[in-house]
Design a protein that fits this description.
This protein is mostly helical and 176 residues long. The chain is built from 8 helices and no strands. Helix content is 71%, strand content 0%.
Length: 176
């Protein structure tokens, strides 16, 4: 599972084995991109925020203990960096943050065509479950707590969602 691989690599990185940063980056770059792209539309700003995210992650790696999920920690940093940049841009332009158009359903993530197809074709509830489990790396038990639903309901919905996504895979990659 992604969360465990990132946690293992983070533990090695904390021991001073810097080669594990590449593994962390490879495992998380799509998720970090997706989180930042959900806030910022400009690709240059997204790339800058990604760099800042990984620098902040490395600078605060000592704060991550075995009880914390390094993937969730990294994705929270990504979200905060993206929101900070959006706020900075609005202040520079003299616009209220409430007037800023945040990228949501109109985000075109060319690196993740299956995820974009799922976003367009799943209900908001279904996509949120998919996002929490696949992008953010939460277990279904954790998702159930977050959404205030029984674990059995989340498991049932998750299995239904995965069947739909498998069908989407054929639609997305066989059409090209």
């Amino acid at each position: 599972m992604l969360k465990e691989k990132v946690a293992r690599a983070t533990r090695q990185l904390k021991k001073g084995k810097t080669e594990y940063f590449d593994e962390i980056y490879d495992l998380t770059r799509a998720s970090v991109y997706y989180v930042i792209r959900g806030v910022l539309k400009d690709n240059h700003l997204v790339e800058d925020a990604m760099q800042e995210t990984y620098v902040a992650f490395l600078n605060s790696i000592a704060k991550i203990d075995d009880e914390h999920n390094p993937l969730s920690y990294l994705l929270q940093i990504a979200k905060n960096k993206a929101l900070d940049e959006a706020r900075r841009m609005t202040r520079a332009a003299g616009v209220s943050v409430d007037d800023v158009e945040i990228a949501t359903t109109d985000v075109n993530v060319s690196e993740l065509p299956l995820l974009e197809h799922a976003r367009k074709n799943l209900s908001d509830d279904e996509f949120r479950i998919l996002e929490l489990t696949t992008i953010y790396g939460y277990r279904r038990v954790e998702v159930a707590k977050m959404l205030g639903e029984p674990v059995s309901t989340i498991n049932w919905k998750y299995n239904k969602i995965i069947k739909k996504v498998k069908a989407f895979y054929g639609e997305v990659y066989n059409e090209k």
